[in-house]
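Thread: "does anyone have the structure for this chain?"

Original post by V.I.:
We have the sequence but no experimental structure in hand. Need at least a predicted one for the grant figures.
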Amino acid sequence: MSRKIYRIVALFAIISAFAGCTNLDEQVFSSIPESEFYKTEAEFMSAMVPVYANMRTMTDWRKWWDLEETTDICFTPVKAYWAWFDGGIYIRLHQHSWAEEDPHLNDIWLQLFAGVNSANRVLYQFENSTIDMEGRDKFISELKVARAFYYYLLVETFGNVPIVDRFDVPEGYLPETKSRQEVFNFIESELLDNMDNLDDKSLATYGRFNKWNARGLLARLYLNAEAWIGEDMYSECEVICNEIIDSGKYWLDEDYSMPFSVSNSLSNETMFVIPFDETKTPNNQIYMQARKTLHIAQIATYNLSNTWFDSGCVGVPSFFDNYVEGDKRLEKTWVMGQQYALDGSPLWTGGWVDGINQLVNYTRDVVAIDGPATMVEGWRFGKYEIKVGGTSAPDNDYVIMRYAEILMMKAECILRTNGDANEAADLVNQVRSRAFDETNVLTGAELQATIEYNGVPVQYGRLLQELGVEFALEGLRRSQLIRFDNNFVNGYWTFHTPTNDPKRNICLIPFDQLQSNENLVQNPK
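Reply from O.Q.:
Generated one for you, tokens below.
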């Protein structure tokens, strides 16, 4: 049985339209007593499906991935006739002037807490089942790690959030805001207490948490500890990275594009993915893969059906200066220049939106963020392969974590703990070597140096540059910029001037949540 078919059987056999509860008080049970739930491993696995299925909404419109637009990688300019203005939200995201009323923040909050509540619901049923089944504790640990993943994204985005670790809450329960330190400690303890109980890497754990990608999540937590809670935990991060490396369970793919291909379920590099399937998950999408970025005329490039391209988000022009000559990651990440139909004929816009019929020839530069940009300004996303003859639903799985990140995390930890800079360089060069036809290496001295990045001095700035190029559009950039001398709020990039306000390192608690829960405390404005 192929890996692709196996994961479909394992993960989608009993999928429903369940998207996760958002009401923390809601009680959802069948008529069967809770104590008699789940008698077989298949029943346990099917019960966990909604916890993972909820993750697929993270890459949809107005969800978690849109936080990439707060960084130096991408933005959504206003087009002719105010297309993509959307009340100015994308301008505010890019310029760090978001408000608590902005719907994106509320959608992200609801989506992530839906995952928390879904995990709590299934945990409640598992823990109250009286069936003595081998492996029951393993599934409970997996659910707690999945819940920790949602909390990792919550603490990264909002900092101070409620900790809700049970489903059977009293009527009228309103959780209180906990400090970022408390939430950090909760995530750490959940991972430490449960990751060794998980299964090893196998076909059966594809798209699920296992003992190695759970360690990868813990390494991420430790890597950001100094920026988030003021505690240096780089040594702890390096230890975890070494455990993953020494396991021999993962290795780099020869082709940089393999983890993002239609057949990325065969990748040796991917450690944790959100599974998508054109047939099994037809109503879900990786919005930034194509629809959010490409011009509608490019449907003819791939002979697609039942889909639409919105020509919205584009690359930040100043970001492209990070690519050095010969770096193949540029063309493997971005769609540039004249575009063609599948038969090789040049594509024209047809005057869509702006009334100007011109060649679909994507230009690097964009005239303005607040309009009116033409429909062909800005290089577009091209990291995820688009299936020829496909539909709006992707057949690629969305990559949350890959082995290259583990190597780069270890390199960063070595530098930050005054370790052997040449060892760090060896790790970085191991990752970047596949991006060049000819030898192009970085030295330890280059990685150690303080250089100007985004217009301001940044220690280890060359590593920050390399992290941006390697992991562009993968949802990691915001944390990267924050870790490196607070470049997130201090740096300059196209259509973004620095706020120099560290309060903008976390998002505001959404207005709707403050109105519905008097126990929530707004983050500093």
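V.I.: this helps a lot. Confidence is low (pLDDT under 50) at residues 1-32.
O.Q.: and DSSP finds 18 helices and ten strands in the chain.
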